[in-house]
Amino acid sequence: MSNFRLEQISAQLDSDSSRDRMLALASLRDVPANEAVPLIKKVLDDENLQIRSMAVFALGLKQTEECYPILVKLLESDPDYGIRADAAGALGYLEDRRAFEPLSRAFYEDTDWLVRFSAAVSLGNLKDPRAKEILVQALESEEVVLQQAAIAALGEIKATQAVDQILKFAQSPDWLVRQRLAEALGHLPHPKSIPALKYLEKDPHSQVSIAATISLQRLGQ
């Protein structure tokens, strides 16, 4: 991208209009990471929370060496739980296994369920087998969304040792939990996965039964 265009975006990011700053941030979508990240940093402390959220999300997609430490700092110290959750999610997009430790701390220590949810999802995105113990613990959460995230993530990291723990959700009253289970089992070749999927294939909710059919096909059934 030309220097002139980058200067235009930079000036727009300094605008008093939050709409202008938002549009400028959105226009960085096709800008190379090394040119975009310095501009994204300009609005990481923006007074508009939506712009801050967009900026954090963008750091997860642009992926320069600078992004990782910025996102970890936001995850660990930002006063806004939404921004901490965004930072956890962005770390998952980076797929940098260094994020295992900060995401694990966030899951154990953050007091907000949304941050813990984002941390669990991102631990799955990292595909790091070390996350198994944390995710199994998340299954015991009273927050249904955390159960959903943990089941999905255990599938992502291919934790076949956790099949027994997730199968107890086959009769969950929440259809999204059952759908996540059906999807996860498709990544877990285990003697108990096939019969469980055949059971879920008869689920009264179409999304669950479709997910079970797809997973059975993935497992060669």
TrEMBL record:
Family annotation (InterPro entries): ARM-like, ARM-type_fold, PBS_lyase_HEAT
Keyword terms of this UniProt record: Antenna complex, Phycobilisome
Listed Pfam families: HEAT_2
The organism's place on the tree of life at top rank: Bacteria
SUPFAM superfamilies, per database record: ARM repeat (SSF48371)
UniProt-recorded name of the protein: HEAT repeat domain-containing protein
Parts forming coiled coils: none
Species, as recorded: Floridaenema aerugineum BLCC-F46
